[in-house]
Structure formats: structure tokens, C-alpha cells
Amino acid sequence: MTGLSAELRLSMPVAAGPGFALDVALTVPDRGITAVFGESGSGKTTLLRCLAGLERAAEGRIALGETLWQGEGVFVPTHRRRVGYVFQESSLLPHLSVQANLRFGERRIREARESEFARIVDLLGIGELLQSFPQQLSGGERQRVAIARSLLQQPRLLLMDEPLAALDLARKQEILPYLEALPQQFDLPIVYVTHSLDEVTRLADYLLVLKAGRLIASGEPESVLSDLALPQRLQLGDEAGTVLTARVLERDRDWHLLRLEFPGGELWVRDSGHEPSQTIRLRILARDVSLALSSHQDSSIVNRLPATVVDMGEDGDPAMQLVKLALGESHLVARISRRSAHQLALESGKSVWAQIKSVAILH
Amino acid sequence: MGLSEADLTAIFLTLRLASVVTILLLLLGTPLAWWLARTRSLLKGPIGALVALPLVLPPTVLGFYLLVAMGPNGPLGQFSSAVGLGTLAFSFWGLVVGSVFYSMPFVVQPLQNAFEAVGSRPLEVAATLGAGPLDRFFTVALPLARPGFVTATVLGFAHTVGEFGVVLMIGGNIPGQTRVVSVQIYDHVEALAYDQAHGLAALLLGFSFLVLMLVYGSRRRAGTGMGW
User: Fold this and answer.
1) Which of A217, A344, B54, B171 fits a 20 to 30 Å CA distance from A64?
2) What DSSP state is assigned to residue A69?
3) Do B228 and A94 touch (CB under 8 A)?
4) What is the ipTM of this complex?
């Protein structure tokens, strides 16, 4: 269904254990991955279950585009919402083969549509597994089958509840490329619950941050993550950082470096195999950004960019200080010691040099 | 140790009784067990206790109440007269009714355990894949609870075969009608016909052992093969 605009709102207290309440009003863009980020117990999974109709105790209103799912006396049961749901742990039906699992949802679509079976099986690389049973698969294979199964029912909304959380690092790396490819391949809203900032920075096109059942931030990851209030409220510590989208300008084969351009300057990064004019996503941790009042030519740090201090924020650690920088249209966050900030007499509006020690290339 | 004509009649009657009772119990017990496994109702406790009562109640107590209920003035008796079945006491169908109550926990409890073991996750998964409530029950809950059905069928059947007290109270001792194997053995012993008693008793012993071995064997296999 093209042109589907999804707007999801729910504002409700949910009784899911002692003293827990979910009270959020939110919208999700009609395509791309919307990450719901928060620590465990923040209500992420409950939110997802409400969206799927698995949590009936919730009050409020949920609508996908023009379709009302809940509210005004309506409650559309889960099996009529056509939501794809990928659970955290394996959710394959153990008495059915991979093939039968994949067909389970597809067979139950009412309107006749061309099957995408071959394409989706191919996309997730599970063609070899069709005759196997779930207990014969590895954790990573099971999640790939579960993702394929949820896509085969041609869902109007795809919900993913920490699909990587139960996997080890190698299996995570195995599945992430498939997840990254989803928004280009499927035109539907995807809500992706995670407590991993790494997954947020790699996958999210839009970001919702939950804390204790409330929405505390929402927007593009670039702006949400560079808001100084966030790291402190979520106790991110060393994980605080920002994401940037950059374009490859040139590939220096002698030094194995890439020259990148982002709205705010240029960066040199280690050669990741990308070709000129490709777009890549970067993550710069706040602890890897240091500040100087002049440009040090005699430093080993390659990336030195002129920037302006736009905000100063508290860190959870009393020795540390967060500094938000503007570089053209982009923002970076630096995590420096409070004493350094005092010695440099940093304040909003001051011009500084941002020295970036390390840049992670996400994809 | 040969089996007499009367012994064979008793054996066939017993098998017929156990088959009818098992089928009825699976039909009645499945929805009851499903309800007990999934409900949050306050009635879960009392109903569960009622189902389990025959486990601890002396068969004579159950048989006594059933006899009274099946009498011309009892509710069961009046109902069966009204629908033209006559009184149930001392008849095959009276035994069926009594055995259904008596063997109920042996069918309902394994099914309830099996449904509880399936849990709500596979059903939620099926719901997100577009399966409605009945669809989910037949395509997910029933297949996943299959080990429970094997156990319930075997135990319900075997327990009905081994029934004695309730039969004696409400069925009496009518050849071809209510004289089942356990009663036949009792008769042999009363008549000091120990040889004949031995034949039938050994048969029941072997049968019961075999049945339990099958149940425990299938449980072990189910435990290793059906990991969720």
C-alpha cells in the first residue's frame, strides 16, 4: 500500500507491574526505521505491545494513517491489524518447518496479491533453510526467518522488539546489514525497540526516547543525540555522541584514507571501501572530541575543525562537562573535563577548534 | 489361567467403557483445560479443585452421591427420565457418567499443563501473523499441546479400566452391562477361584505397566524434541 501515512498516538496509563505507567503521545513517520530507545523498564516493549494490540489494558487512541485501531470504542484485534512483529527471542512456531513458518502469515492475507516469497527469502538469505525446523537453526538464522516471516504477510507496520538483544556480537553483525537494507526495500513504517545506542546510530532514521514510561525526546537522531539534556538524563557517560551523514569526496589509496564532506566541514577517515559520491553514516563519540583555542598543526590528530560553542551541559560525572558545538549546519558534542572548560573559559558563542580523535563509520 | 467366556465379556465391556469415556473426556476436557490454563477468573480455583476432587475422594463417596443423583428423585435421574433414557443407575450409561467424573482429573490436568506449557507467546505470534482465536487454537495450541493429549488419552483410558469403587456403587454387577474386569476379579476372589483371578489380574497389571511406560517414554522424548 503506497502513500500510507502512519500516525500513531497513544496516551494512556498501563498497569504492567508495580508503579509502572506508560503515558506517551507520539507520531511515527510513514517510512524508515523509527528507533524507540530507552533503558530496560522504560516501557518500550509495552508500547510495542499496545501498538500490536497484544496489550488490551491500555487506553487511548492508535491510528495508522486513516485506519483507527484503537479509541472511540474501537479495538481492532491483533490478527486484523496486519502488523509484522519480530520478538526479542526466537518466535518461530516450533512444530512447523521454516517454510511453513514463512507461509503462516502469508496464507492468511485476505486480498490476493503477488507473492514476494522468492524475493524476501533471497533478501534474507534463508533459501537453504526452508526444509529445516526451528530447533535446527542458529539464533541468527532464526531471527532472519522471523524477519522474513513478518515481511511476507505484507504488513502495514513492522514492529521489532530488540531483535538482536539475544544474539552474540558476531550474530548481531550478521543481521545488521539486513536490517539496514529494510527501509530501501519496503515502503512501510518500522518501529524498532532497542536499548543499544549502537543500533540506534546505525539504524534509526527517526528517534523516540522513552524514560520511565514517558517520551522525553523525539526527532532526527542528529538533533536528538546532540541535545545536551539527553546524555545526562539517560546516564550515557562514555556512550554519548552524535551521528553525521557525510559524502565521500575522494579516496586516498596511498594513505588508505577517505576524504568526506558533511554540512559543516570535511573529515578524513580510514578507508572503509566506499567509493566517491557514496553517502555514509558516521558516529562521533563525545569523549573522542577535544577542544583547543587555536589549531595545533603539530598534533597527530588529523581532523581539526573550526566550531562555535552553542551550549554547555552537565555530565553525570562531576568531573566532566558536555559542550555542544556548531559546525556549519551540523552539531558535535564534546565531553571534556570541567577544569579544561574552565581554563579555556568556554561559553556559548566562543570560537574553538574541535579535534576529533576517532570517527566510527557505521555504513 | 485361561480366560472364560465371562472373563472375555468383562474385558470387552471394560474396553468399550474406557473408549467411550475417553472420547467424551477429550471432548469435554479440552475446552475445560484450555479455560483453566488461560483464565484469570476467580472461578479458576474452585473449578480446578472440583476437577481434582476424585484424586483424593474415596470412590465410594463419589459413587454414593452419583447413585443418589441418578436415582428417580435425583437431578441426573430426572433428567435422564425426561429425555427417555430411563434411570442411569445400574446401566452401562450410568457407568459412563460416573467414569467421566471419576477420570476427569486424569485427562484435564495433563491437558491443562500442556496448554500452560505452550504459553501465550506462540499464540501472540500467530495473532500477529493474522490468525484469529479459533485458527490459533487449532493450528498452534493443539499441535503444540500434543504430548499432553497423548498423556491425557492414555491416562484417562487406563484409569477408567482400573476403576472399581465407583462401578460397584452405581453399576452393580450385571454381566455384559456393568460387570467390568475389576469387578470380575473381585467376583473370582469372592468365589475363591484364584486361578481365574490371577489370569485377569496379571492382564491388568501388564496393561497398566505398559501404558505408564509409554506415557513416561513419550514424555522424555517430548521433553528433548519440542524445545521452544
Assistant:
1) A217
2) E
3) yes
4) 0.81
